[in-house]
Write a structure and sequence with these properties.
Elements lengths: L2 E3 L9 H8 L5 E3 L14 H10 L6 E4 L11 H21 L3 E4 L8 H13 L6 E5 L12 H10 L7 E5 H6 L7 H13 L6 E5 L2 E2 L10 E2 L7 H10 L8 E3 L5 H18 L1
Parallel strand pairs: 1-10, 2-3, 3-4, 4-5, 5-6, 6-7, 7-10
Antiparallel strand pairs: 8-9
The structure holds zinc ion (2 copies).
One zinc ion binds next to loops.
């Protein structure tokens, strides 16, 4: 199980690898531009080349798409901006040589599934070497993707939707009502995956503890051992014959030192429990 952190690219792209090394990450996740503004800076070919050649063994390399993107918005202007922004996310991820681009599907009114499918259909063909992963959400607001059935409904209405993959976030799942502290719930998740998107589609774990209660729909990441999931959940994942084969990215709060402690704890538990 390759583990790593979401790291910063502030200042320069290759800062990601410095933080990756300092934290002993194997996998890495980055934003390819600021996740909270629509304005994006283009990555020059020179910067991209430097990034690709400094990457070393970090794999998989994951880009997390901007939080502003909402392909399912009921506001047409937001949808159009979102499609453009996603298009440029795909281009940047390709330029950087990323393996995966993680996207929150978004939501709005009862047409959201259709809108999301339309948006993805427009962008999906430009994703050649990078695979777009739809991430499960905590179910806040009208956001779609709180379970595998909802993710499948999006995949089904997307042209070439089979090219899409799935990222499973533990914090979001707990907020959406999956009690991940119970081994039986993970067995239920296996059944759900088997009946919906299929195991082949699930490519990545987001390993976050959470401040939110079970079923609270809250998306508040916590450091491992300080949240509601706790190390018991990590022990279950370590023994899970499917999930312990996936790469895992930690998106826990705090400075690099604090997050590196989280990574160490996860790694120790996984090595111990297997
Ligand atoms: Zn996540
Ligand atoms: Zn989150």
């Amino acid at each position: 199980m390759k583990l790593g952190l979401h790291v910063s690219i502030s200042g320069t792209l290759t800062k990601a690898f410095e933080e990756g090394k300092k934290s002993s990450s194997e996998a890495l996740q980055i934003f390819s531009s600021s996740p909270r503004t629509w304005r994006t800076s283009r990555i020059t070919e020179e910067a991209a080349q430097e990034f690709r050649s400094s990457r070393g063994d970090f794999a998989p390399l994951v880009v997390h798409a901007s939080y502003l993107i909402n392909l399912g918005s009921k506001n047409e202007e937001v949808r159009e901006k979102s499609i453009k922004a996603l298009q440029s996310e795909v281009e940047r991820a390709e330029t950087l040589g990323a393996d995966y681009l993680v996207l929150h599907p978004g939501g709005g009114d009862e047409n959201a599934v259709t809108y999301i499918g339309e948006g993805l259909s427009k962008v999906l063909d430009s994703a050649k070497s990078v695979k777009i992963l739809l991430e499960n959400v905590a179910g806040e607001g009208q956001k779609l993707g709180k379970d595998f059935a909802e993710l499948l409904s999006i995949i089904k209405v997307t042209e070439n939707g089979k090219k899409l993959g799935v990222c499973f976030d533990t914090c979001h799942a707990f907020g959406a009502g999956y009690d991940l502290r119970q081994k039986e719930v993970w067995e239920k998740i296996h059944d759900e995956i088997n009946d919906t998107v299929g195991f082949e589609a699930v490519k990545l774990l987001h390993l976050n503890d959470t401040r939110g209660e079970l079923g609270s729909n809250l998306d508040r990441h916590a450091n491992w051992g300080e949240g509601k999931l706790g190390v018991e959940t990590l022990r279950i994942i370590a023994k899970d014959s499917f999930f312990n084969t996936l790469p895992g990215i930690l998106e826990t709060p705090g400075d690099l030192e604090k997050r590196t402690e989280d990574l160490k704890l996860c790694r120790e538990l996984f090595n111990l429990e297997r």
